[in-house]
Amino acid sequence: RSLAQQWMLCSQMTDLIFTERELVQSLKEYIEAEEMKLEAVKSWANKLDMLTHASTSDPEGFLAHPVNAYKLMKRLNTEWSELESLVLQDPSDGFISNMSVHRQYFPDEEDEKGAAKALMRLQDTYKLDSESFSKGKLPGVRYNAELTVDDCFDMGKLAYNEIDYYHSVLWMQQALRQMDLGEDAKTAKADILDYLSYSVYQMGDLPRAIELTRRLVAIDPSHQRAGANLHYFEQLLSKELRARGRSQQEPADERPIQLDTYERPKDYLPEREVYEALCRGEGVKMTQKRRSRLFCRYQDGNRSPRLLLKPMKEEDEWDSPHIVRFLEALSDEEIEKIKELAKPNLARATVRDPKTGVLTVAHYRVSKSAWLEGEDDPVIARVNQRIEDITGLSVDTAELLQVANYGVGGQYEPHYDFSRKDEPDAFKSLGTGNRVATFLNYMSDVEAGGATVFPDIGAAIWPRKGTAVFWYNLFKSGEGDYRTRHAACPVLVGSKWVSNKWIHERGQEFRRPCGLTEVD
């Protein structure tokens, strides 16, 4: 079972923390056993060193004593064999056995790659330079953690192998910076310059690529590729200069490479910049006029018997589309019970394939989830009933309560909860129509990151433990409200727990009657 791209999911990561602690204890016990063995061997060696020094100085006189003759026979026949057995003892057996038991749960190469990509994702989303990560300068952190030259080099090499020269440059530059400041490393400076110079060339910066390659040649004149690369880069630059009618190049930019030195390549997500800005709290379109239209109220679910004596506190988060937040939607005890029920069943979160309707994993959703039924525990049944009371919508046709855990780097890129017209089979197997509404419980606070953002309308909603947000995905006509395209921002520091209830059309005919216009 691979944990690929799931390293950042907190529930299993905590298990690995305790596994590593157990292995450290096992390693210390092995070291102690080895030290005891060596002490016994050293004691033997010292004793026999003194004895043989005396016996070899006068062999005949030594053996003239019958006790010495007997003890020589005894030592060679018995005691040396005992010493041989002692030396052959392998105290590592316990440690190796413990390693073998736990190795099946260790992350593999894909997991390490996923971890590195998560750091790069955070770096991009929150505009953090490589030094911020390397020196552990992150908001809200309780424990300091730093990256070494070798760590930075490995990050850059992974990006390089993925043909991601943008991130390769950032991390190789950081490795070089730390090495130039005197930090010791196993990695050779020539290797860093080799990867960095070629990555810079791939980013289109020939003058800097030439300058870095010259540094490489100066360090290692016999380097296999450096001389040829330097000649090639210089020829390319000369050709460019001639094409521009210039005779000599400008000196290479001596400023350190930063996040904004090179433009990050565009990818498959058209609203990437807007989405990431909202995750940072930038570009939120909360004007004073809009704020004046937001109110708070007590919600009794149209006089639901369960809410009459203790109505729900409701706050407007956004006016159009109408997004509300319910306070004290879950108690701490309910949250812990839900997490307890979900943890044994957590698996890589899936999305419904729009063509087939089949649940499948996707690179743009990095979290773990579990599905809980009302029959699993009275708490789940109570939460389902509460959602029905608050919203006035039937949950009989809703999907099971989905519990999701987003660890550091965990995210769900912009998506729609409802199926579009070109996805007619998305929920066909359920037989309950489209997703009419979303009820999202926040089950943890998040130290940094983890907002729910709506790029099309410029809204950002931040997690608050025990609260829930609610919005309609469809107009009363049944048409999809495309403004509800939303995303779960990457968690920068902490762990984010949520539970989702997707409410479907069937059963709402009299609770939310159809509207007369398409966008009513």
UniProtKB/TrEMBL annotation:
Pfam families: 2OG-FeII_Oxy_3 (PF13640), P4Ha_N (PF08336), TPR_P4H (PF23558). Its EC number is 1.14.11.2. GO terms for cellular component: endoplasmic reticulum lumen. Its cofactor is L-ascorbate. Residues 397-505 form the Fe2OG dioxygenase domain. Keywords: Dioxygenase, Endoplasmic reticulum, Glycoprotein, Iron, Metal-binding, Oxidoreductase, TPR repeat, Vitamin C. It is an enzyme of class 1 (oxidoreductase). The keyword Protein transport does not apply. Catalyzes the post-translational formation of 4-hydroxyproline in -Xaa-Pro-Gly- sequences in collagens and other proteins. Belongs to the P4HA family. This is procollagen-proline 4-dioxygenase. It comes from Sinocyclocheilus anshuiensis.
